[in-house]
């Protein structure tokens, strides 16, 4: 594991202008599909996974090898958690990622935004002011807001 960023604001330059092959959310317990605890992203040009989340209003961005992520997926399945495919929300995959960053948004919390080559904005944000709050997605495309 390699934690690349842990801050309120950062730009993930190494993720820009790369084709995304998979975009999955890990949803805990009975949370809705739009409330992932962690989002996983795999690029078409590597087996390495990028994993990001917001915790205590701080944005985190990490990289993991494929075997480690597959173990996390197996553990999630055993715990009754589920993986949600967010590919359809961004207009289908593979799709080019033009930028990835974290910025301070509502509740003075980090928001992690992915921007895709079709203009789709995929944002992981805190749900409320409480530091222990879960995150939720805000996805907007040129043709609609989801």
What global shape is seen?
A: globular
Oligomerization: single chain
| Residue share in helix | under 10%
Please indicate the percent range of residues in DSSP E strands (runs of 2 or more). over 45%
Q: How many beta-strand segments?
A: 12
H/E element string? Answer: EEEEEEHEEEEEE
Total domains, how many? 1
The structural class is mainly beta
Question: How far is it from the N-terminal to the C-terminal residue, by CA?
Answer: 32 Å
Characteristics:
146 residues; mainly beta; 12-stranded antiparallel beta sheet; 12 strands; globular
Topology:
Elements: E1 2-7, E2 10-11, E3 18-27, E4 38-43, E5 49-55, E6 58-64, H1 66-78, E7 82-85, E8 95-104, E9 110-116, E10 121-126, E11 135-141, E12 144-145
Antiparallel strand pairs: 1-6, 2-8, 3-4, 3-7, 3-8, 4-5, 5-6, 8-9, 9-10, 10-11, 11-12
């Amino acid at each position: 594991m390699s934690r690349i960023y842990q801050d309120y604001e950062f730009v993930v330059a190494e993720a820009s202008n790369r084709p995304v092959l998979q975009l999955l959310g890990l949803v805990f317990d009975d949370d809705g599909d739009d409330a992932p605890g962690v989002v996983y992203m795999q690029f078409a040009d590597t087996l390495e996974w990028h994993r990001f989340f917001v915790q205590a209003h701080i944005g985190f961005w990490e990289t993991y090898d494929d075997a480690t992520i597959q173990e996390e997926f197996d553990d999630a399945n055993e715990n009754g958690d589920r993986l949600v495919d967010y590919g359809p929300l961004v207009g289908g995959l593979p799709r080019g990622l033009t930028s990835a960053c974290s910025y301070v948004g509502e509740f003075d919390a980090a928001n992690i935004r992915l921007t895709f080559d079709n203009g789709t904005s995929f944002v992981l944000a805190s749900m409320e002011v409480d530091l222990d709050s879960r995150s939720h997605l805000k996805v907007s495309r040129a043709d609609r807001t989801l």
